[in-house]
Every structure is written in C-alpha cells, then in structure tokens.
Amino acid sequence: MGRNEKIARSVVRAIIKANGTSKQRSTLARILAFFSLFFSLYRLLLRKIRPADFANLRRNHWDVTDDNYVQSFQAENGGPEEESLNAIGDMGFSGSTFYSTANQKYLVKSVPRHSEHSFFREDLLTPYVQHMATHPRSLLVRVFDFLAVSGASLGRVFRSAPSHHIVMDNIMYGREEAKKQGEADWESWDLKPTSYFYPERDIAGGALASEATKDHLADEFRDKIILHREQAEEFLSSLEADSKLLSEHNAVDYSLFLVRMRTPQRAAASVLPPTESAIVTTDPPLVPPSQSNWRTGVPSADGKYIFRASILDFFWAKHKAQPKAMTLLIKLWNTLISKQGHMSITTTPDEYRERFLKLCRGIVEIRED
C-alpha cells in the first residue's frame, strides 16, 4: 500500500469511527493496531476537531444526514477503506494532498502548514461556524469536517504525512455524469486579483520559472457572467459579507472558484426567471432540493450557461509567523532590489478584499428584465 492509500485510510477511519460505524476489535487487535500506527510513516491516527459544530451545520443547515455523509466514505461492495477516496493530481503550490470521495460529492484537502491549520482552528473556526449557520447563501466553501493528528507516531515526528485535513463540498460534482450524457465539458477558473507582484511571473519576465509553475498562478476569466439584477445583487452581497468576515480575521489570498457549464440542450429552449430555473443537480451535499444557488447552479440571464461559484483557500492570515516572514522578505525586496509592490499573500486584508471585490464585480454584467 502506497503513501496516498495510507493517508486515505487514515482519513476514512477518522470519519467512519467518529460516526459509530467502526468494527469492534479485540484487545490484542487494538494493541497490534497501536504499534502499527506508531511505526507508520504515512498512516496517522486522526481525530475530528469540533465535531458537534460541524455535525450541526451538516444536519441543520446543509440538509446532509449522517448516513448519507458516512456512506460517501465507504467503499462499494465492502472494498478496502482506501478505495472510497481517489487521489487527485497536483492542484496548487501549497503542498496539499487532495482526494475526492468515490461518489465525487466531497473533497478532502490536507492543510500541512502550521500557520494555516492553526489559524483555522484558533482564530477562524468559531466565526466560520457562526457565519455559515446564519448566512445560508454564503459562498465560502462548506467545510464538513476538520481532522487533526492524534497520538504519537513516527509519521507525526518526521512529518511524512499531512497532520490536518478538511472535508469540503465539491462544486464540480455532477461533471462526470454530464459528460456521460454527452454534455459539453465544464470549464473552471480559480480567480484572484492578478495585479499583485507574483515572482514567478514578474521577475525577469517569467523566464526563471517553468510554464508548469506559472500555470498554477491565478486564472483570468475573459468573459462576463450575465445575470438578472436580482441574481447579481444577491451574488455580490454574499461576496461582500463573506469577504468582510475574512478581512476582519486577517485572511488574504483567497480565491473565487468559478465553474461554467453550457445549458443542456433540453433546457435551452426556454429561459425561466431566476427563482424558477432548473437546477443541474440537487443531491446532497449541495443544498436542499427546493433551492437554487451558486452551489447547485445559477442560470445566466441569456440562457447559455449555468454557473457555480465558491470562495476557497482562506487559511492564510497575516498575523501568523510564516505570513509575517513572507511580508518582511517582500519589504526587503522592494527596498533593496526592485520596487514591485505587495504580493497577494503580503498585502493588508482590507486592501486584498477591495481588489477581490473589484475583480468579482468586473466579471458580472447585469441584464435588465
């Protein structure tokens, strides 16, 4: 069993065990399991952080039952635990590992940096839970569980496997099914302000960085989301409320993940008002079936597309040690070498929010009814 499979098994066992579905084992089996975990480099013992708070969000605000949630982490036909998660390729600079559940409803992302998982646990978690409970239209990615390493092991000492993971919703859910039905493939963009200083792009005209490295920089959406006024106002209002929460807690460098799919041919003949438009998929964990929002799919006012959107990667906080060090380095660079300005990870939270909202407003076009 390789590294990815062992990490996957750790995550699955934390989810299954915490929900009371793990198998009872003998004393000898538990002793052997303890030694196996202690000497393991990749399979760590994980526990849930604030499980009651996340369970409350799932059950009472996101309409996800415990049975449906746990079922997503169980392999089909009684297969090995690790088969319920599929490793996803490299998705960014953070060094994170990514998995999707076999049914593609959830993503599991590791949070390896101490500055990030400590910020979420110590500073943002309580405000996040309260915000998500009181803002049903929030665009912040839905975090269904937060897992942390527990107990002694060689893997924890040598940091050979991620110590923290978040389970979050997957707004690309339904893509594979749409492809099977012959629909056009979905497009996606990871959007953040591009006017900041990005060393990979801006030093020596990008000649010192590989194309693969530069491909991980923020995308640009060179089009417009055409919306009715009511849709646009709700979208921008949610972005303002969500970014206000992040700014108040010193978060920067978050992004808007935008998904665009062509309207299915069978639905393209008539464009319904925003409150009556058909939803692409209403299966959990997205929303209750009666609601249409940016997690299930919002139809554009011209009837050509359906859009989804979510705010991701809001774990980088200016007051943590690593961000402070990066800010100091950029100040020295601007003083001693070249005046390039701030990076998106070293600017102030208020300034980042201002540019982020400007970007989001700039991709919206309002069509009057």
Automatic annotation (TrEMBL):
One of its GO terms (molecular function) is ATP binding. Residues 1-364 form the PIPK domain. It comes from Chaetomium fimeti. SUPFAM superfamilies: SAICAR synthase-like (SSF56104). One of its GO terms (cellular component) is plasma membrane. This is Phosphatidylinositol-4-phosphate 5-kinase-domain-containing protein. The chain crosses the membrane at residues 27-46. PROSITE patterns: PIPK. InterPro entries: PInositol-4-P-4/5-kinase_C_sf, PInositol-4-P-4/5-kinase_core, PInositol-4-P-5-kinase_N, PInositol-4/5-P-5/4-kinase. Keywords: ATP-binding, Kinase, Membrane, Nucleotide-binding, Transferase, Transmembrane, Transmembrane helix. The keyword Iron does not apply. GO terms for biological process: phosphatidylinositol phosphate biosynthetic process.
